[in-house]
């Protein structure tokens, strides 16, 4: 009867021995060796591009501060009188075709010659503002330095993307990829791509000894 009904102590002993037996027969799978030279090159290029971008952001930020410190006064009265129908003031100041607008004033037949002259004067006020604003941008380097910063950002993004698509030689490289893709504090990025995720999956399979 006792042989058919083992005690709780015997069952506990069997349970404790089971993991040991399983571990004894487990055969570790060694991850295949990966040539890390390609990864090292791609990661170094990414690091250099990131440093170049960070170096370009400060002059652009300084130019922004200088540009905003003494802005050109906006001709608000002219905007309210002549351009009241436009929802966005910035469009009037930077984007509107002033020559076309003035031509329509001259040919639409509305108002007296005096009223049309006042309207044209309001158009000229916007032109004067643009000229002064363009001069301020030139003095501060606002447009030029922001363009250089944007170009450096594009170069960094391209280099990072190349690194992401490069086979990862170890878990540290995979961690860097995941931090980049999912917006870690280190990179402050929120990129997402099926191609990139599949690349990381292939990395994990390869390091786990599976065929990618």
What would the keywords be for this entry?
212 residues; disordered N terminus; signal; TAT_signal; 9 helices; 2 domains; mainly alpha; 72% helix; single chain
Q: What's the arrangement of secondary structure elements?
A:
Layout: H1 8-25, H2 37-69, H3 76-82, H4 89-95, H5 98-107, H6 113-140, H7 142-165, H8 171-181, H9 194-207
Domain module count = 2
Q: Span between N and C termini?
A: 55 Å
The percent range for helix content is over 70%
Percent strand: under 5%
Poorly predicted regions are 1-28
Largest sheet: none
Could you say which structural class the secondary elements and strand pairing correspond to?
A: mainly alpha
Record field, number of beta strands: 0
What does the overall shape look like? elongated
Radius of gyration using CA atoms only? 33 Å
Keywords: Signal
Signal peptide: 1-23
InterPro entries: TAT_signal (IPR006311)
Characterise this structure.
The chain is an all-alpha fold. It folds into 2 domains: 8-57 and 150-207, no CATH class; 76-142, no CATH class. It has 9 helices and no strands. Helix 3 (76-82) packs across helix 6 and helix 5 runs antiparallel to helix 6. Mean pLDDT is 84; it is low at 1-28.
Q: How would you sum up this structure in a few lines?
A:
The chain has helices at 8-25, 37-69, 76-82, 89-95, 98-107, 113-140, 142-165, 171-181, 194-207. It is mainly alpha-helical. The protein folds into 2 domains: 8-57 and 150-207, no CATH class; 76-142, no CATH class.
């Amino acid at each position: 009867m006792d042989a058919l009904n083992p005690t709780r102590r015997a069952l506990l002993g069997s349970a404790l021995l089971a993991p040991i037996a399983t571990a004894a027969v487990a055969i570790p799978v060694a991850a295949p060796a990966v040539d890390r030279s390609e990864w090292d090159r791609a990661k170094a290029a990414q690091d250099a591009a990131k440093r170049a971008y960070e170096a370009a952001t400060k002059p652009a930020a300084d130019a922004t501060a200088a540009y905003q410190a003494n802005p050109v006064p906006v001709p608000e009265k002219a905007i309210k009188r002549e351009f009241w129908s436009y929802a966005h003031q910035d469009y009037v100041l930077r984007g509107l075709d002033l020559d076309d607008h003035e031509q329509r004033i001259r040919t639409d037949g509305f108002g007296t010659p005096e009223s049309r002259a006042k309207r044209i004067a309001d158009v000229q006020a916007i032109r004067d503002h643009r000229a002064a604003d363009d001069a301020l941008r030139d003095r501060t380097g606002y447009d030029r330095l922001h363009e250089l910063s944007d170009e450096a950002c594009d170069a960094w993004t391209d280099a990072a993307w190349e690194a992401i698509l490069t086979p990862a030689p170890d878990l540290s490289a995979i961690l860097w990829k995941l931090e980049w893709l999912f917006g870690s504090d280190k990179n402050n990025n929120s990129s997402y791509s099926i191609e990139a995720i599949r690349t990381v999956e292939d990395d994990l399979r390869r390091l786990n000894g599976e065929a990618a």
